[in-house]
């Protein structure tokens, strides 16, 4: 049977589609950041003696869907991919379109998962950061209301150990480092300050807690893969804190990880205790809460801004600086309020004319 040009083109098109499906099933070395609609916080937070105030408005938290991209998605989203350079028009319209989503960003996997750390270990880190952020948010909010809160840094948690580092076999996940060469390191910032004076390859003696035990270990440092002049031990750090609350505060964020919902949680605790801080507005908020009430920068601002817009938020509280500048690029009418601290966030909301 003679093959017509039309049949040949149809066969080639079918082969490309099958190839696209196969490539969609193969994981790549990239991650996709995808927008997710902002979520109301009120159903997630329970405070002893508190209740959700009536009326319009509400506090919303925003998150980012992070997942490993397929080979096809890396090609479709990549700015210098084979598809874009050679088969741009046909592939983008016939193959990529069903597998791409507006607002997505493709990033190298090592920006999401540290080198040598498994996806599963990184996920556990995210969930632990969320748990800590909830406790910090409750402490900051209750302290703002005049309650006596015990909240102090208690060391640096070992979340995930990089494969191939000398820390493997010496440290374990959930160990809490409290000193380096005898110098107390109760915060991540202090730990980094001490390591700024250590040369890659030098040995350091780490003092740490493992459960109820107090232990030490001598570990040879390695060079930071992103800055060869900087010495690291080879683990993902998280902040440990001794927090004692005068009221029971329970926050159920489900399977959402990371520390960036801290500001939203702190605002909701105030709402539950009778402070209508939203003033009738839909207030989306993002930012990592620190024990001193400062609001630290976070990632995925583009996707979070799109998520706030999708939820029809009236205002979006964002950490000041680069985060706020990026949010304004995607705001499209959404009011962006840049904040550096929890008190500043409250003052900014208090200046809004009451709505509803």
Q: Radius of gyration, rounded?
A: 24 Å
By secondary-structure content and strand pairing, the structural class works out as: alpha+beta
Number of domains: 3
Task: Indicate the CATH class of the largest domain.
Answer: Alpha Beta
Distance between the termini: 74 Å
Low-confidence stretches: none
Topology as a string of helices (H) and strands (E): HEEEEEHHHEHEEEHEEEEEEHEEEHEHEH
Strand fraction: 25-35%
Dominant shape:
flat
Question: Looking at the chains present, what oligomeric state does this protein adopt?
Answer: single chain
List the total number of helices: 10
In short:
The chain is an alpha+beta fold. The protein has helices at residues 5-25, 71-77, 82-86, 88-96, 119-144, 188-195, 262-272, 301-310, 322-329, 342-350; strands spanning 27-35, 39-40, 45-47, 58-61, 64-70, 105-108, 150-161, 176-180, 183-184, 203-210, 213-220, 222-224, 227-232, 235-244, 249-251, 282-285, 288-289, 295-296, 315-319, 335-339.
Secondary structure elements and pairings:
Blueprint: H1 5-25, E1 27-35, E2 39-40, E3 45-47, E4 58-61, E5 64-70, H2 71-77, H3 82-86, H4 88-96, E6 105-108, H5 119-144, E7 150-161, E8 176-180, E9 183-184, H6 188-195, E10 203-210, E11 213-220, E12 222-224, E13 227-232, E14 235-244, E15 249-251, H7 262-272, E16 282-285, E17 288-289, E18 295-296, H8 301-310, E19 315-319, H9 322-329, E20 335-339, H10 342-350
Parallel strand pairs: 4-16, 16-19, 19-20
Antiparallel strand pairs: 1-5, 1-6, 2-4, 3-15, 7-8, 7-14, 8-9, 8-10, 10-11, 12-13, 17-18
């Amino acid at each position: 049977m003679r093959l017509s040009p039309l049949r040949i083109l149809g066969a080639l098109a079918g082969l490309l589609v099958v190839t696209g499906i196969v490539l969609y099933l193969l994981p790549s070395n990239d991650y996709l950041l995808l927008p997710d609609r902002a979520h109301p916080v009120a159903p997630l937070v329970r405070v002893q003696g508190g209740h959700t105030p009536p009326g319009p408005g509400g506090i919303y938290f925003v998150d980012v869907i992070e997942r490993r991209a397929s080979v096809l998605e890396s090609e479709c989203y990549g700015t210098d991919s084979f598809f874009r350079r050679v088969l741009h028009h046909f592939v983008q319209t016939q193959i990529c379109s069903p597998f791409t989503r507006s607002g997505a960003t493709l990033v190298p996997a090592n920006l999401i998962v540290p080198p040598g750390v498994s996806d599963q270990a990184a996920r556990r880190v995210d969930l632990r950061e969320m748990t800590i952020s909830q406790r910090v948010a409750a402490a900051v909010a209750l302290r703002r209301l005049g309650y006596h809160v015990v909240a102090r840094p208690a060391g640096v948690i070992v979340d995930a150990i990089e494969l191939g580092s000398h820390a493997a076999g010496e440290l374990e996940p959930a160990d809490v480092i409290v000193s380096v060469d005898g110098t107390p390191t109760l915060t991540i910032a202090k730990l980094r300050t001490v390591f700024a004076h250590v040369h890659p390859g030098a040995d350091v003696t780490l003092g740490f807690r493992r459960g109820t035990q107090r232990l030490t270990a001598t570990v040879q440092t390695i060079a930071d893969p992103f800055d060869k002049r900087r010495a690291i031990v080879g683990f993902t750090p998280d902040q440990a804190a001794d927090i004692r609350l005068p009221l029971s505060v329970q926050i159920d964020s489900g399977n959402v990880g990371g520390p960036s919902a801290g500001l939203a949680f702190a605002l909701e605790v105030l709402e539950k205790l009778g402070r209508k801080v939203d003033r009738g507005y839909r207030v989306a908020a993002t930012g990592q809460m620190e024990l001193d009430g400062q609001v630290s920068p976070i990632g995925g601002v583009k996707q979070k801004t799109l998520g706030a817009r999708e939820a029809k938020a009236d205002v979006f509280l964002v950490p000041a600086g680069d985060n706020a500048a990026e949010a304004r690029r995607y705001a499209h009418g959404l009011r962006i309020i840049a904040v550096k601290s929890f008190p500043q966030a409250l003052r900014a909301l208090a200046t809004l004319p009451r709505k509803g």
